[in-house]
Amino acid sequence: MADIVFRNVTKRHGATIAVDDASFTVNDNEFFCFFGPPLSGKSTMLRLVLGLETPDSGEILIGGSPVNTMSPAERNVAMVFQNLALFPHMSARDNVRFPLIERRVAEAEIEKRVADVAAKLHIGHILHKPPAQLSGGERQRVAIARALVRDPNAYLMDDPISALDARLREETRVELKRIQRELGKTLIYVTHDQEEAMSVADRIAILENGRIRQIGAPAEIYDRPASTYVARLLGSPMMNILK
Predict the structure, then answer these.
(1) Residue at 126 is within a domain
(2) Are 84 and 126 in contact (CB under 8 A)?
(3) Domain total for the chain?
(4) d(CA 79, CA 108)
(5) What average pLDDT values come out for the chain (243 residues) when binned by 10 residues?
(6) d(CA 205, CA 216)
(7) Using alpha carbons only, what angle is made at residue 199 by residues 194 and 204, rounded to the nearest 5 degrees?
(8) Most buried by CB count within 10 Å: which residue of 9, 99, 146, 189?
(9) Strands (DSSP E) along the chain, which ranges?
(10) Distance CA 177, CA 99 (A)
(11) How far apart are CA 94 and CA 116, in angstroms?
């Protein structure tokens, strides 16, 4: 079980409040999406869950256990950053294998997991190549595979497919939704793309200046926005606001 709970969490970056008194629950096995404009607090939320940042106040729980004082390794969550961090001297295969080698997983199990995730993301034919010989989209898929190959409590993804072209973005988000369902894992996903948020998420949290303005299923938020801010943020073309 890996529900993720924020209880009155605040995080400041100098004079800026990046996360402002956030309280919410991401349910076990849920595909949960943070959506909002740049600097609304989306990535900071993920870094707080991962343990790269510590709340100034409030409490975070993963699977019912407080994690404020735990290191990222102790939290056992897997992260895919917007800016890729593949090892340039390793092949794509060795990049995907790396987190399992670190955890001393048996070789036969490593090969099984790598083959499985490579098939899911259609990267088997490029595993022999180093990152420098891969396209941006291929590198992105290898980075996603490296996160999926683990068996973490939850997956965190920070705008992971923004570098892909439109066709690959559509294919990859469909695959991510399918894989998340197959794995039965909690996944928190950050995006600034409305179509992406509406198509993959079980629920969406709408952020503005570090505050959560609304949480709900995509259809619920679209049909019944809680404020003019949410209404203006969603909809293509933009909703008309009558005063």
Answers:
(1) yes
(2) no
(3) 1
(4) 24
(5) 92 96 97 95 95 97 95 89 80 95 94 93 94 86 88 88 78 83 90 90 97 96 93 72 61
(6) 7
(7) 65
(8) 189
(9) 4-13, 16-26, 31-35, 57-62, 65-66, 77-80, 154-158, 186-191, 203-208, 211-216
(10) 22
(11) 15
Bridge partners of 33?
189, 204
Question: What would the two tokens of residue 8 be?
Answer: 């009155």
Burial of 157 from C-beta contacts in 10 A (0-12 / 13-18 / 19+): buried
Q: Which tens digit of pLDDT belongs to each residue from 211-223?
A: 999 999 999 999 9
Tokens linked to 61: 């729980």
d(CA 83, CA 127): 20
In angstroms, how far is the first alpha carbon of the chain from the final one?
46
Residue 195 within a domain: no
In a domain, 5, yes or no: no
Q: Helix, strand or coil for residue 107?
A: helix
> What's the pTM?
0.86
User: pLDDT tens-digit profile of 25-48?
Assistant: 999 999 999 999 999 999 999 999
Tokens read off for 6: 């924020």
Kindly report the number of other CB atoms within 10 A of residue 161's CB atom.
25
Q: Which two tokens stand for residue 80?
A: 């895919």
Q: How many CB atoms lie within 10 A of CB 94?
A: 16
Q: Domain range holding 134?
A: 77-151
Domain-located, residue 121: yes
Tokens at 168, concatenated? 């690959």
